Amino acid sequence: MKNTVLIILSLVVLSCSNNYDTYKSIDHSLADYNIIPKPSHLEVLKGSFKIDENTSIYSDSLLNTETDYLESTLKAITNFSVTRSTKKDDSKNIISLELSDNIKAEEGYTLEVLYNKIDIKAKTTKGAFYAIETLKQLLITTQTEPETQEYLIPATRILDEPRFAHRGMMLDTGRYFYDIEFVKQFIDLIALHKMNVFHWHLTEDQGWRIEIKKYPKLTEVGAWRNGTEIGRTPGDKSDNKKHGGFYSQDQIKEIVAYASLKHVTIIPEIDMPGHNGAAIASYPYLSCFPEEVTKMNDNIISEKTKELLDSGVKKVVQESWGIKADVLCAGKESTYTFYENVLAEVAALFPSKYIHIGGDECLKDNWKRCPHCQEFIKENNLKDEEELQSSFINHMSDFLNGKGKKIIGWDEILEGKVTPNATVMSWRGVTGGIQAAKQGQEVIMTPREPYYLDYYQVADTINEPLTVGGRGPNTVEDIYLFNPLPSELTESESKNILGIQGNLWTEYISTPNYAEYMLLPRMTAISEVAWSKESDKKDYEEFLQRLKVFKKNYIKMDVNYAKHVFKD
């Protein structure tokens, strides 16, 4: 605070001058550099760079998109329209963005701020984008006169690069549908935090959210449910409200393009062989037993669904949460053909080299009594139903490999026979991740404690909205202090950990406002773990001080963040 007062007093004298030499002598303290995630190396230098009507930008032609972003960002904050310069002139008040082979890390950058110039250098466009995100956080707005503001960036030298290659967030749109404006805002939040992966959960028992042109009933039928259980599972009753929606392929393309501008890769998830109630309701032959009526919680069947069942309809979209027994039939060729066709359309829509195919929570009761599945097990010399699931996953993995894609699956894919080139997402703790890393497989750590953001975020839940019970809480502190590199792994094995991810499952999270509340500020803590180097000393109180400043980003974005860790 003292330092900020000094800046303001200095600027009262200097505000009418465009002599940038006068900004050489401004002193700064570490309190003026509250950056999240914390950079690898930061030096505090003397002086400030002033953004005003004389500021210009010079950039490499390959950085046009990033330069546009910087220009629009500065305009939004300062209301100054900076000019473009065709040459780099350090004698002017200039910001330069350049690509450099001297930066070794793919997403790394250097940022040097002096009183008369700002130099950004990066190996790739991604690094330049992250440097701009850092620059945004450094910008200080000061009041020099009642109606006059000055915009300063404190002098510094930053060398920065991320700890992990995969820095992800998952949004479940299968339980509740979120419109594309919220999806774009979710991507904005990912970019703000220097994260780079949007894991998009698109299919569930309770809703199918992606248009597949070959199978229109997936969205005509599967995208809609006639009611939703009220209360925590097993629930009290149905709300009898139709809920649903889906993303057209044109909307998918729009969102993919939007994410690309923010250097965010979208990894779609098409869950299989479990969690497929919506697909089975659309195409009953996908079930082991198409003529059997969908099993539902008796007290949570909507009036409309009761009418359908009474009329002779056998398969309906699920209206309650939990794990369902009616899964894909892994013994019929038609199931494999169906999902090859689905994945072919998905692979064409998403540039990501990964496609997530789930593989979790697949109950095998139906397989044990299904003649098709038992015959498949026998003909293919499989040991049991666990190996049947492995065979199914391996088949889909081989199919996607032929499309130039690799699969990601939840840690259940380690059961049975291993899919050697699959990436494992470890969610039931870190045990699956340890096993996979020791086997030489790629791993993304996303253990439900503490990275599941649908869990309560404080121990005292009396004033909290309904969410998953029986686990947690997953607090900001838990997330910040968690080390995703288990001590059981050697240095070499630890290199198989691609990164980390936070997951927002939405069984009880039906609105964007509620989703934002569960995301923030826990997402911010995840970003710090994902980006900042392991050698950084963990200091939770120091992180909270930076978080207190960072929350201005929440306010600017008009998002509903949780207030528990903020003391004022």
From TrEMBL:
InterPro entries, A to Z: Beta_hexosaminidase_sua/sub, GH, Glyco_hydro_20_cat, Hex-like_dom2, HEX_bac_N
Domain Beta-hexosaminidase bacterial type N-terminal positions: 33-160
Keyword tRNA-binding attributed: no
Gene3D superfamilies: Chitobiase/beta-hexosaminidase domain 2-like (3.30.379.10), Glycosidases (3.20.20.80)
Protein name: beta-N-acetylhexosaminidase
Stated family: Belongs to the glycosyl hydrolase 20 family.
Reactions it catalyzes: Hydrolysis of terminal non-reducing N-acetyl-D-hexosamine residues in N-acetyl-beta-D-hexosaminides
Glycoside hydrolase family 20 catalytic domain segment(s): 164-533
Domain of life: Bacteria
One GO BP: carbohydrate metabolic process
Organism for this UniProt entry: Formosa algae
GO cellular component, one term: membrane
GO molecular function: beta-N-acetylhexosaminidase activity
Enzyme Commission designation: 3.2.1.52
Keywords in alphabetical order: Glycosidase, Hydrolase
Pfam families linked to this entry: Glyco_hydro_20 (PF00728), Glyco_hydro_20b (PF02838)
Annotated TM spans: none
Active site (catalytic residues): E361 (proton donor)
